[in-house]
Amino acid sequence: MNVRREEDALVAEDGGTVVGSLRRDTDGVVLTLTQPREGVALALLRALAAEDQGSEEESEGGSFGSVHLQTDDQTAVIKLVERLVPRVFTSPATIVSPPRNGWIAVYDGIADGDPNRLRALGRELSSASPYVTITFGDEYGRVVHLVAMERGRVMDEYVSVPSLRNVAPGDAIALRANPTVLARLTHADPAAIRAVARTAESPDELPPPQELIGQVAAALGIEGAEHGFEQAREIPGAVVVEHS
Question: Rounded to 10 degrees, what is the CA torsion of 195, 197, 203, 208?
């Protein structure tokens, strides 16, 4: 069983079928079971508790992230950002980098500090374009998260510390990077990807997230993944898209 965040709710899936959901309201939480599966309610409640713990840990380190699209067409990406960002969340501004090594990076000040919004932004940009899209995130200075997408479909996902995700052991294995898939999408060397996209039981067993993101991105031929929105202002040729 897999539990994921979808906007304001936690959703439990089993074999690709939604079996339950949980969301907060003013009186507490609302639990909905769409199928009578054992352990669904417990899995959702555990996921909520894990999120609450993660919120408490935010003070230990900030989050940052970026979305990278495999194209040299900065104008096309700017148009996508102008159209899509206001649909995903309210944001004052988004920065679009110039092409670097065949990739254009998108940085948003709101998505920077919220891994869920960052993932939603990557999904929307991927769904609306023909470009391979890779989202990199540093979650609270503890976990590196990568999602590779093609036309809105998740092709591969990497979490540096899978044990911090509330998933079954089999699902945790799926959160390890697949060098073959990533190499096909990015034309990178599978061995180079495998060497740096490491997983561990604790963040202390890996390099600091900013360093690890830089290593993984470099193996994929992507620049600018090791920082967030504020540093993106200094990129030569970057365009700031302001949202009214």
Answer: 80
- What length does the chain have? 244
Look up the domain containing 13 and give its range.
2-60
Q: Looking at residues 29-38, what average pLDDT do you find? A: 79
217 lies in the same domain as 230: yes
Could you give the count of Cα atoms lying within 13 Å of 16 in the half-sphere of its Cβ?
0
Q: Are 10 and 32 in contact (CB under 8 A)?
A: no
**8 and 21 belong to one structural domain:** yes
Same domain, 49 and 93: no
Rounded-to-integer distance, Cα 179 and Cα 238, Å: 30
pLDDT one-digit tens code per residue, 70-85 = 999 999 999 999 999 9
* ∠ CA 216-103-100, rounded to 5°: 95
Instruction: Name the CA radius of gyration of the chain, rounded.
Output: 18
The number of folded domains in the chain is 2
H or E segment to which residue 10 belongs: strand 9-14
Distance CA 109, CA 39 (A): 37
Say yes or no to pLDDT of 8 above 70: yes
Boundary of a domain, candidates 14, 33, 60: 60
Residues 26 and 94 in one domain: no
Same domain, 104 and 143: yes
Give per-residue pLDDT as tens, 102-146: 999 999 999 998 988 999 999 999 999 999 999 999 998 889 999
The pLDDT, as a whole number, for residue 80 is 97
The structure's pTM equals 0.75
